[in-house]
Amino acid sequence: MSKLGLKILDRYIIKKFLGTYFFSIILIVSIAVVFDIAERLHRFIENEAPLEEIVFDYYMNFIPYFAILFSSLFTFIAVIYFTSKMAYNSEIIAILSSGVSFRRLMVPYLISAAVISLFSFLMTDQVLPDANQQRLAFEEVYFRDTPQRFGERDIHKQISPGVYIYLSSYSFSSDIAYNFSMEKFEDGRLASKLISDYARWDSTSGKWELRNYFIRHYDGDKGERIEHGRDLDTLLALSPEDFRLRDRFVEAMSLRELDEFIEEKKMRGDENIEFYLIERYSRIAFPFSTFILTVIGMTLSSRKVKEGTGFHIGLGIFLSFTYILFMRFTEMFSVSGVFSPAVAVWLPNILYAFIGYMLYRLVPK
Predict the structure, then answer these.
(1) Which residues of 288-322 are buried (b: 16+ CB within 10 A; e: fewer)?
(2) Taking the mean position of all CA atoms in its chain, how far away is CA 339?
(3) CA distance 331 to 133
């Protein structure tokens, strides 16, 4: 085939690929929105959510979140659907018979996968953080059964290396930490312990106001020194936002903000950062999976079978869901400490990349 013919073929496949991809997004997201409205309608009515906020704060931000979350699935479906139709219409056989190698036929597929990967990465890093922030804020207000006044009970935190705090409860309405205590360790030895009735956040000074405090200083051979009083302002590596943070908060961070957040957690000596590392590695690994699923989908559906397009689509959906299931399975093992976050995130890609390579080697040329 001539160079002009190859360019025409490339444009034809890229147009088919991207057109089917975005069409599948529109179709499936529309169905998802209808089901979500049916599920949450009573919540909207009970909590008197304004229609404008439902449309612009929730669904206009839910749509890009859902689309990117299942971007790999949409890619897989798009590849299998239009490639199997080409195979069923004997277009693949005609292309290969004209002298185009199977490897060359993969080029427009990989170009399309690169476009989708870049689109997914930019959406995840630049668009979704703000969209998720508005969506999560809406859910916080209208999807809770009761307003959240208090956070978790019996909170233990390490706010910096060697500094640990404890509080029985935290009030979001008044930014007060009740039964506040803080322990400082130096060289593995307890250096001081502070106890107070409560600690109130002063937004003006950026400090915590301690009420009825009692500090015991341990000076080693010199014995103990006790300090107490009614009021004390102190500067801590802690803010009210640290109590409001939940696991889903990282969805509202860009990659740069997430890196800074993880570094801050490491600086504080926080050992429970696996969840955040998984999110960080997923931002890169998830777009990369587009290439893997494209290769698998193309090799599976390029062969004409008597069962028709439906067989390819069914097999493709099965494989894509096993990929997603395996990815969640390895992430669970990472949180429990069996795998490192990097291994947990990239292991599904490595396994399915091997499957794609084997299929590429076995597919009839």
Answers:
(1) bbbbbbbbbbbbbbbebeeeebeebbebbeebbee
(2) 18
(3) 24
Tokens, residue 184: 């400082």
Residue 178 phi, psi dihedral angles, 5° rounding: -90, 145
Residue 189 lies in a domain: yes
Q: β-pairing, 224-234 with 189-202?
A: unpaired
Q: How many CB atoms lie within 10 A of CB 161?
A: 11
pLDDT digit string, tens, across residues 285-342: 888 889 998 998 898 888 776 666 667 677 777 777 788 788 778 877 776 667 788 8
Place of tokens 């990097």: 342
Residues spanned by the domain of 117: 3-144+274-362
Tokens at 118, concatenated = 């870049």
Nearest to 133 by CA among 224, 44, 254: 254
Quote the CA–CA distance of 108 and 16 in Å, as a whole number: 10
Do 75 and 126 sit in the same domain of this protein? yes
- Are 14 and 108 in contact by the 8 Å Cβ rule? The answer is yes
HSE value, Cβ hemisphere, 13 Å, CA-based, for 190: 12
- Domain identity same for 285 and 358: yes
Q: What is residue 42's three-state secondary structure?
A: helix
Residue 183 phi, psi (nearest 5): -120, 135
Question: Same domain, yes or no, for 10 and 110?
Answer: yes
CATH number, domain containing residue 228: 2.30.30
- Burial (CB count within 10 angstroms: exposed 0-12, middle 13-18, buried 19+), residue 153: exposed
Helices (H), strands (E): how many in the chain? 12, 7
Q: What is the pTM of this model?
A: 0.75
pLDDT digits (tens, 9 = 90+) for 31-84: 999 999 999 998 898 888 899 999 999 999 999 988 888 888 888 888 988 888
Beta partners for 217?
A: 192, 225
Question: What would the two tokens of residue 55 be?
Answer: 């449309």
Q: At residue 7, what is the residue type? A: K
Residue 111 lies in a domain: yes
